[in-house]
Amino acid sequence: MNEQIICQILEEADIEYKTKGKNVGENTVNVCCPFCGDTNYHLGIFKDGGNFNCWVCQKTGNLQYLVYVITGDRITIPESNQYLPEGATEDLGDYVKKILKPKVKVISKSRTTTLPEGFQYITELTNNNRVLNYLEGRGVDRIFAQKMGIGYTDHLVKKNRFLIVFPITENKKVVGWVGRDYTGMTTKRHVIPGEFDIHDYLYNFDNIPVNGKVIVCEGPFDALTLIRKNLGYTPVAVLTSGLGKQQINKLIEKKPHTVITCLDSEMTFKNIAYAEYLTCFVPWVGWVGLPKGEDPDSFKGNILEQVHWIKTS
Ligand SMILES: [Zn+2]
């Protein structure tokens, strides 16, 4: 990166900057620091590399992160295109912007999601064999199900019946849930309650340690499989096929040291795009390339051997 590119990016983002004058170093382009409320251009962006440092509050990071903090917009720099997967016709930067664009305007609304009617946690007294057998078939025994707070509904309710229910919690409070049919008889295998905006939450979020290592997968069963593999990474499930804006924000709040994306194999392009995007915020980033047709739940090999690192710093 050089001065010209940095200035161009700042101009496109409508951010005022100085290339000389008071508080401006020889090797930097300076802006007012958004982190400490500085108004005198104390934040310098290094012409070589594009990382920044605020002389007042010592905040550091890279240009993408800075633009995001000031404007709320995500940008990709031209160099990112080196990770464009083979055969891809779309520019990766555009692709990332597109997938991160929220489908609806994010309005903060009060969450009143409760667990479905008839919900029961799995306990040592649970004797619904269909439920227990289904879970067992996915490698989840009763003790593990109890530990993970998994529950179910049965035939006694009219709506949302016959579901394995995964409560989604934040700070130990239930904020939503997703359900999976355990009979194989209904047309709707996955159930997401309408009042719950799934793109705002991550399954297993509460277990992410600050400065930890995180592996991002798709579904709750993928997360459970990865937990059992004891990889040294905390699995979180995005619950759909991609990461939403709020999910990324929440992930970043935990200041993860390392994130690897492990979405299902048909999603390799997305997998790389999200990983590429996360390099703006996370020191170590990689993506997992599983063989065609495999997902984390089915893959028998060592997932960590399949990681393609795109940032190690
Ligand atoms: Zn500052």
Polypeptide structure, described:
With 313 residues, the protein is an alpha+beta fold. It folds into 3 domains: 3-75, DNA Primase, Chain A; 120-196, DNA primase, catalytic core, N-terminal domain (DNA primase DNAg catalytic core, N-terminal domain), CATH 3.90.980.10; 202-312, 3-Layer(aba) Sandwich (Dna Topoisomerase Vi A Subunit, Chain: A, domain 2), CATH 3.40.1360.10. The chain contains 8 helices and 14 strands. The chain has helices spanning 3-12, 63-71, 92-100, 129-137, 142-147, 220-228, 245-253, 268-278, and strands at 28-31, 43-46, 51-54, 60-62, 120-121, 151-152, 163-170, 173-181, 190-191, 213-217, 234-237, 258-261, 284-288, 307-312. The strands form 3 sheets. The protein has a 5-stranded antiparallel β-sheet, with no helix packed on it. A 5-stranded mixed β-sheet has the order 11-10-12-13-14. A hairpin with an 8-residue loop joins strand 8 and strand 9. The model is unreliable at 79-93 and 99-110 (pLDDT under 50). The protein binds zinc ion. The site of zinc ion has 10 residues, from loops.
